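Page 42, continued from yesterday. The earlier attempt failed because a stray header line got pasted into the input along with the sequence. Redoing it now with the clean sequence only.
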Amino acid sequence: MNRSPRYLVLLLTTECNLHCAYCYREEYGPVQIMPREIAEKGLRLAAAPGHSFHVQMTGGEPCLEPELIEWTASLVRKEGWPATIGIQTNGTVLNASLIKMFKRYDIKVGVSLDGPLDFHERLRGKFSSTLRGLKLLCEQEVPFRVTCVITWQNVAAMDKLALLLGSFSTARGLALDLLVCKGNTLKSGFVSPPSPEELKNGLKKLVHALAWVNKNRSNPIKLRELESLKQAAKEGSQPHFCHASKREAMAIHPGGTIYPCAQTVGDPCFACGTVETANEENFYLLEKNSLRSEQCNDCPVSGFCPGDCPGRLYYNDVRTGRLACVMYQALWEEYVKES
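This time it went through. Structure tokens are written below.
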């Protein structure tokens, strides 16, 4: 086989200890935990060509399976594959043992945090447990980044999130994920995307708050979306939104089914065979079922705007599917002002 991903997502478990108001999960039933042989086959698919790749462990909540995390990371390191390793966690069950493991295998840590107490509690729950996890990471001097899902409910509090992160010495980054309208978002009707004006105002407050926070830090907290714009402008390039939009990603369900990205896991429309039967036909299906991003062509940053998440464009309606363009325009305008 002569093709493989540069971004491999392993969903270690479908179990989660939170009940997020916008959970994207499409399937329910008995908890599924990824067998080691499935994880290994996925890793070997990614490693086969010999180029560098990234392994992202997620779930559910992956930290509910510490032994599987360690087994996966140790295999990558033992084989000497040119891979980076990351984990996305809600932070609620982090402990000294897990953090020691992250340091041992050089696992990059991402934590989901949707705002200060009131906002995070309404959207995800167990804020105090997540906060305790962040404090443990700081105590052990482990750098981490935070990912925030932006909704109508928390968009006005993003500046407060920046101020909260400023209190953690090892916080290194903040990433913004605009809400995708699937799963619980559709079922409950409780959560919805922000309006364009709400998003612009929230981003303006966020950029100003981060600038203030970073004046007092030796290691700045970098906003992923703004950094990607700045890098693209410096290089004079127009990047893709993500690895999936370049058809370089592959997400594997605990049962072994292959999908183009984590966003599409569980959607039968995007299933592309399994790791058990992976062959060129599977990779043809992976390419066929992948979603391409669409770059904007009518905004001030169109020359290097990465466009929008292809999964979000697929699942959201026209009104909510173009908020990424609003986001990048707003961030660029604030950056130009500050420059």
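Notes: Strands lie at 7-11, 53-58, 83-89, 107-112, 144-150, 171-178, 222-223, 249-252, 258-259.
Reminder to self: strip header lines before submitting.
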